[in-house]
Input
Amino acid sequence: MASIKPSVPKGTRDFSPAEMAKRNFIFDTIKSVFRKYGYQQIETPSMENLSTLTGKYGDEGDKLIFKILNSGDFWAEAESRKQKEESFSFDSKSLTPVISEKALRYDLTVPFARYVVMHQNEITFPFKRFQVQPVWRADRPQKGRYREFFQCDADVVGSDSLLNEAEFVLIYDEALGKLGLKDFTIKINNRKILSGIAEIIDKADNIIDLTVAIDKLDKIGLDGVINELLERGFTQSDIEKIKPVILLKGTNTQKIASLRSALSTSTTGLQGCEEIETVLNYLNISKPQTAIVELDITLARGLNYYTGAIFEVKTNEVAMGSIGGGGRYDDLTSMFGLKGLTGVGISFGADRIYDVMEELNLFPTATDISTQVLICCFDKEGEIYAFPLIQQLRAKNINAELYPAGAKIKKQLDYANNKQIPYTIVIGSDEMQSGQLTFKNMTTGEQQKLTAEQIITQLQ
Amino acid sequence: MASIKPSVPKGTRDFSPAEMAKRNFIFDTIKSVFRKYGYQQIETPSMENLSTLTGKYGDEGDKLIFKILNSGDFWAEAESRKQKEESFSFDSKSLTPVISEKALRYDLTVPFARYVVMHQNEITFPFKRFQVQPVWRADRPQKGRYREFFQCDADVVGSDSLLNEAEFVLIYDEALGKLGLKDFTIKINNRKILSGIAEIIDKADNIIDLTVAIDKLDKIGLDGVINELLERGFTQSDIEKIKPVILLKGTNTQKIASLRSALSTSTTGLQGCEEIETVLNYLNISKPQTAIVELDITLARGLNYYTGAIFEVKTNEVAMGSIGGGGRYDDLTSMFGLKGLTGVGISFGADRIYDVMEELNLFPTATDISTQVLICCFDKEGEIYAFPLIQQLRAKNINAELYPAGAKIKKQLDYANNKQIPYTIVIGSDEMQSGQLTFKNMTTGEQQKLTAEQIITQLQ
Output
């Protein structure tokens, strides 16, 4: 067989032991917080029926779904279709559903909705689930954007209590705090407030145009937003009405008061204020430890989707897009025929969190260390002497390795250094005779002569 | 959008919280043992270039690889190919490489070989890696055979020491023992012994026929094997020579002695005996706790692949195929152009281990329990009272949930029972007034009035 220069598909990655240790640190931390709040893990298959996925992410999204070629003689199917239906044309769009019936999941939300509907009779509602699995998107790869990446989601369905929203803020706070982030903001908004703003100017149908413009306040300032609104067909009188909303200032409490007054004619808008206030009240009872919680009415992510709360998390320590987001959706499962099941969920952007932690040097040094001690010996005799010792160490739950006999001692110590193994035991003929083994701290270089028992005690 | 009756692709599975808890128990146990022996985790992408995978698993294997349809206008590529090359025919075989350049990994071994070659300059050899990831095969699904399933592999490359083989036996022993298996056999063999058997009858080229026949000894007995050998073109004189090998009896030591004598004219065969003996000698120094280690010369799994040791693990408690296997391969990475790198590895059959554990009822009862305590309250006031309490519990690392106000208490207790939450705290007006909360053990039904602090102490 000709040898192939090996590579991975563009937009995909290998993870080395050092990277895996760091990734596991992030995932394990987040999972432990999810569990602490009563969320339970599920997993769904990597492949879904193509019909489960298509039509859920818009036309642009559909194009980014990775389709799996039917196994067996897929082309026979295409030809038989052509025979039955003369007008059937051989082009990518028409052929796709004929030669592909499965696809890789694009996110965790649609598979979760499918899961809830399929298993509704076994599930105890409110159903609090988390899911940490890869998703695939045929996006153009670029820095920080991959074709295979992990999502890390928690959602509760079947409870309309705003306690859930408050707890998600606390989950973000605790998980990111545990990861070592010291300054981050959890922005919250509510779709009903955005609807209210559109309502008070009688432009409920233009809510997307409105939010797209307001969303740019940070970047283009008030004048810019006003120009954009005018361009998008809003009138000067509209702008006068919503100006107080755009210019919202002060504490969260002050902002809610201003909103209440500006949105006084919109029932929906007022309900949004009420909901935000309820969430903030919960968070006054049990305060986040680290996070700044900020009402931000420019926040509109996933607008087509969310019906209540909207969340977004940003670190203030590093320039980086959002490291988390989520919101409430009143009708997630209706796409699969189960109506009226409200849900709210959040997601952690694990890849970005990884980058932030690298930049801030937040990974504990010990994360990489998997083997605690390496036993080095000079010859077969040393190896035979060492083998029961290493099993003794392992029996005490000490991760340990015995370098197979035959290699130069320098090579063995290099191995320990490269693998960041903090301690070595060197066994030569003196050591075997006296039972006093050379125990070396690889960080300080300090060496001691100790018995096996003393070494075990030190390592524990 | 029309609602779709949801389903998953055949051969794939959802994993519920209860199943995930059990699967995590298995994976976490195995991973912890891998780590204890110095193995480090890597992950590779789900997709590999089609060229990385094809030609590695034989023609039958190639057919079972799930191919991914190129994104974008894949058909344009097919038509352009046809224009350039008139003889190009539109059929599945010719079209596949044109419309698909990526595929889902079929196992973890080939991606690992690709990883080692790609990253050879960063890797410290001997490289001890483990990998726990799903693989995909377009097999016909049946009981116990899935199209998406997890493999759980550990391999070391760059060390020819037989200490590695011995340690793998100890890894199987420790991991399966920790999972609760009480009676299992680790069968070992060596490809060189099989080669030796073929050599002593001058039929090195017929080794496959030979091993296929010998492999059936258990099922069809000696006469059956002899008939099969005759059918496959072996002579009566061949059979006389290899009969002592087929009829190998006694302890491992006795078997090796018999083999040494039967294979005395084959250098390769004798080397196989030597290697097996060395491994068994290691295992006499550090004995497995639970496993029976048995030399079984009928064992030939992955013959085309392995060059030294061959392993297979079987439980003796339940009728089930092998729950693990592996071996040594001298030239794993040569398919990607890196020659002479010897490796040895093992795999755990997680799905079968799961089934065995279910049948033997080996999962600890506590595996499923994720939330330790549920706080139930009657109204909004109770919820407000409970919210700081639940954060106090969580601050002590107690997994806790607060049922949102508004539901009947029966529903809340049902929730606790369905989710196997072992304790509840009920907060009514009496409790709020006195600070003596109703703490209920959901298993025994026992109730106590306790302060928050007392409850925390009990739960810790």
